[in-house]
Write a structure and sequence with these properties.
By secondary structure, this protein is of the alpha+beta class. About 35% of the residues lie in helices and about 25% in strands. It has a 5-stranded mixed beta sheet, sandwiched between helices. The protein binds adenosine-5'-diphosphate (ADP) and magnesium ion.
Length: about 350
């Protein structure tokens, strides 16, 4: 009898300090349930809302206060002792390059985009500039800064109306799950929307209203990524707000989207172009609007998309023939490949 291959040690990071903490916990539970115990030794690390890192009770030595040094110093249960980190963390302190930077410092492989790609995917304002440079269209917008722009300033409202018209969308530049986002139908709503967004971020985007179909495409790979089937989001609410995303039955996800195959191909091509332009790796879900005049506008990039087995990203690849467990296996392989390749570089 041959000895079994050693199991790959995977640290699944869940929770985190962002307002998407609970979503991350649900995604991570799905991931852990799908990782084959014969192949993977899974270490679940939960990061509390206040930033405290906690390992399962079976490893009491490793209550981590959350600094890189203490993680390095912790016993074999630390993330420095695993083969690959699977950060299932959405939003700030997880999806934005911070955890990725920590993994880089520790020299450990991790799933998904690196520091730059993660930070770009998180910052909707800076991302637009990079996409524009790559010839990819995004929604016309104004960027507001808390120290400079007053939510109640009439001149600001004039500028928004002249440049973008009403209704418009107002969003924190660096968040997710539709938290802090509003559709502002009139000036009173605009002032309230800007104030709300500033409660979540000191950088805020005001965008032209995009119309038509909201469509999403998954990307998987490193240097030669593949695009998934394209799906269409049909929220029951006026737009795809928090409730529409997470309340059972509040939205329909139609895969494949009810669009022409030529449009499907354009969306896949634009997704791969955005993936390359933003220096992404491993995975991403790229979200667009296909407007009634045929214009394709990239709305946003998610470097750690919702990750339960029924989330859009997994469903898009399932429709392309890749099962959830195989998708996870592929992502772990991609992380290990990328790490091995980068480890050979001389700095
Ligand atoms: N410019 C826009 N025009 C129309 N709808 C928008 C616009 N921006 C956002 N939305 C709606 O709000 C939702 C959330 O916005 P999004 O930019 O994707 O932020 P998040 O990162 O929170 O998902 C989108 O899925 C879409 O339904
Ligand atoms: Mg979104």
């Amino acid at each position: 009898m041959t000895a079994a291959a050693p199991r790959i040690r995977v640290a699944v990071l869940a929770g985190g300090r962002s307002s998407e903490h609970a979503i991350s916990i649900a995604s991570a539970a799905s991931v852990v349930a799908a990782l084959d115990p014969a192949q993977y030794e899974v270490l679940e690390i939960t990061i509390g809302r206040e930033g405290r890192w906690e390992l399962p009770a079976a490893r009491p030595a490793a209550l981590l206060p959350g600094t890189a040094q203490s993680i390095v110093a912790a016993d074999g249960g630390s993330i420095a002792g695993v083969d690959v980190v699977l950060p299932i963390l959405h939003g700030p302190f997880g999806e934005d390059g911070t955890v990725q930077g920590l993994c880089e410092m520790l020299g450990v492989a991790y799933v998904g985009a690196g520091v730059l790609g993660s930070a770009l995917g998180m910052d909707k304002a800076v991302c637009k500039a990079v996409l524009r440079d790559a010839g990819i269209r995004t929604a016309e917008s104004l960027t507001l800064l808390a120290h400079r722009d007053d939510p109640d300033d009439d001149a600001l409202h004039d500028r928004v109306e002249a440049a973008l018209a009403l209704p418009c969308f107002v969003k924190p530049a660096r968040l997710g799950s539709s938290v802090g986002i509003s559709k502002a139908h009139d000036r009173a709503e605009l002032a309230a929307a800007i104030a709300l967004a500033f409660a979540h971020d000191d950088k805020v985007l005001v965008e032209r209203l995009l119309t038509g179909r909201e469509v999403e495409c998954g990307v998987l790979g490193n240097e030669a990524p593949i695009a998934s089937a394209v799906g269409e989001i049909c929220p029951r609410n006026e737009w795809y707000d928090f409730e529409a995303k997470y309340v059972e039955g509040a939205s329909d996800i139609i895969i494949p989207a009810r669009i022409a195959s030529a449009d499907m191909a354009r969306i896949q091509e634009a997704s791969l172009a955005a993936f390359a332009a933003c220096d992404l790796a491993g995975m991403a879900r790229i979200d667009f609007f296909l407007e009634p005049d045929g214009g394709l506008v990239l709305n946003e990039i998610n470097t750690i998309p919702g990750f339960t087995s029924t989330s859009v990203y997994a469903s898009l690849f399932a429709a392309s023939g890749l099962r959830y467990a195989d998708l996870l296996q592929r992502l772990i392989e991609l992380a290990l490949d990328r790490h091995a390749r980068r480890s050979r570089l001389r700095y």
